[in-house]
Amino acid sequence: MSQSKNIQDENLPIWLPRLAVHGGPRFLQIADALQAAMVEGSLKPGDRLPPQRQLAAQLDVDLTTVTRAYDEARRRNLLEGRGARGTYIAAPKVELTSILDLSMNTPPPPDGVDFDDMLKQGLSQVLMGADSELLMTYHLAGGSDSDRKAGAKWLAPMFGHLDSQQLVVCPGAQAAIAGLILALTAPGDVILAEPMSYPGLCAAANQFGRRIIAVEADKHGMLPAMLEEACRRHKPGLVYLNPTLQNPTAVTIPQRRRKELAGIAKRCNVRIVEDDPYWLLADNPPPPVATFAPEQVVYISTLSKCLTPGLRVAFVLIRDPHERERFLSALRSFALMVAPLTTALATQWILDDSADRLMEGVRNEARVRHRMARDILAGRYSGAGDGLHVWLELPAYWNSSQLARAADSVGIAVTPAEAFATGSGSVNAIRISLGSIKDRGRLQAGLQRLSQLLARRPDSSVSTTNSR
């Protein structure tokens, strides 16, 4: 048997490695290997691939596995069929030469899920079950009863059973943050946040005349002692936390510290806005801060990072009914309602469990991409292995703005640390988003190009070094 296996290995196409036992679905391993060979140049447009039955025999897998691999490769526009003449490597599409975007935090295409088919089926079910006029007219802000029940189901992994009347459905987390700033603070108020934080918070605070003050953090997130001191000194209107796979640092605050931060919020009587878009993507995340101080914490969960940004739906848990009404009033001033059609689709997907399947596909694909980043970036990778992004600290000879410009010059977009800074301190790092490039092969090419850029010094650094 081992002799037969050796013969099979010898007859394998040069582009195809041995299939790994723990390397994920075999059809995806085959498609990924084919794509990597195209990036490396060992497969070129016009090359003919082995017939499916022949490749299945060589790999000792069933024909269905190879068929799925070829179908996946066609979905990625890598292959083209030429009838009886067989299957060939396709010429690259124009989009393959566009910029490699590692700057935008969006979910990757879900692994093992036909998103187009899910979208068509979901919309068909919505249209069959709803009055089309109701989908195209004004609705009350905050979502329908069905939408809020879907929100309660979405939040059940974090909180267990929830009263859906405590939820508000919003057109995205950014709208929720802006509405909460308007509802819970006054012009000139201070908002406390970590030194590196979500840029949308800063944009909304600046627009509304609020001040962001940074609270020192370490490798486990915001420091409780520093938060308490800042609360007593500045009397903030809000504290903003993004505690799970934080954007941009990818830090997850451990449970003990979450309890400490919640306790400080109680003692100082300050509201925490817990913006938690990545909780459902994380491996074994701690309970939300809101579980330790339910009356002090407003919790935001968006579908944009776990499913797709196009839904523009976020759920906000506000237990205090007076604050909930103030929030709804603030929200109506700039976002009268969520879009009924996409909200109905989100509700349909959550209630029929399609959202769970889609999210599991996103989670699995994100993990594959983290493994890819870890392999390519080697010792520079410091991610947690899940979520949508990596926080990459740079070697001393690069600064983050300089590297971002250099990356742009070679067709890669990354986000420098300056985009996230809430204080005057600087961190020499960039955020790399792993989901915005749909195609794994293009992501691999972008990461490899970035790794090569990191390995060499910028021109100015080289000249300075040589002058010494």
Automatic annotation (TrEMBL):
Residues 24-92 form the HTH gntR-type domain. GO terms for molecular function: transaminase activity. SMART domains: HTH_GNTR (SM00345). Keywords: Aminotransferase, DNA-binding, Pyridoxal phosphate, Transcription, Transcription regulation, Transferase. PROSITE patterns: HTH_GNTR. Gene3D superfamilies: Aspartate Aminotransferase, domain 1 (3.90.1150.10), Type I PLP-dependent aspartate aminotransferase-like (Major domain) (3.40.640.10), Winged helix-like DNA-binding domain superfamily/Winged helix DNA-binding domain (1.10.10.10). PANTHER family: HTH-TYPE TRANSCRIPTIONAL REGULATORY PROTEIN GABR. In the C-terminal section; belongs to the class-I pyridoxal-phosphate-dependent aminotransferase family. This is PLP-dependent aminotransferase family protein. It comes from Herbaspirillum rhizosphaerae.
